[in-house]
Amino acid sequence: MLIFPFNGVRPRIHRSAFIAPNATIIGDVEIGPDSSVFYGTVLRADVGAIRIGARTNIQDNCVLHVDRDADCVLEDDVTVGHMAMVHGAHVESGTLVGMQATVLSRSHIGTGSLIAGGAVVLEGQHIPARSLAAGVPAKVRRELSPEESAAFIPHAARYVETARGQAPESESLRLEDVWF
C-alpha cells in the first residue's frame, strides 16, 4: 500500500477497512469501519480533508481529491463505481455514484441518490435526497422510490463481503507463479 503523510498529517484507517495493495492514500484521510478502497484508487488530501464513513466502497481506479475550501466527504454505505471522480464534494449516506461519474467541488448529493454512470455533477450543484441524476451536466431526472433508494444499502454491504475476500498482500503471486 502507498500510504503517505502530507505536512505531518497521516491517514487514519480503521482496522476493519480493506485497502488494495496499489491504492494510494495521501494526507488528511480518514477511512471508517468495513470500508474499502480498491485497486488503483487515489485519495489525495493535501489541501483539505477526505472523510469516508462506514461500509463505503470506492472501486477500482477512482480519484478523490479536495479544494482548500471544499473537503471530500463520503458518508456511510456509499458506493463509488469504477473510475469515478469525487472532488471536494459531500455525498450523503446510501448513495451510489456510477462508473466514470464526476462529482465536482462544493456539490452536495442527498441521501439515497443515484448519480448515473458518466454523469457530471457541476461545481456547487445540489442533488436532493433520493434523486436519479444523469447527463452532462447532470440533471435530476426523477425521484427514486423508497425501495430503489433502500437497495443501495445492501449493495454497499455486498462490497464489505467482497473486500473481506480479497487476498492479503502476503498472498500475492509472483510473476514466476503465473508464467506459462
Automatic annotation (TrEMBL):
CDD domains: LbH_gamma_CA_like. It comes from the Bacteria. InterPro entries: LbH_gamma_CA-like (IPR047324), Transf_Hexapept/Carb_Anhydrase (IPR050484), Trimer_LpxA-like_sf (IPR011004). This is Gamma carbonic anhydrase family protein. It comes from Corynebacterium phoceense.
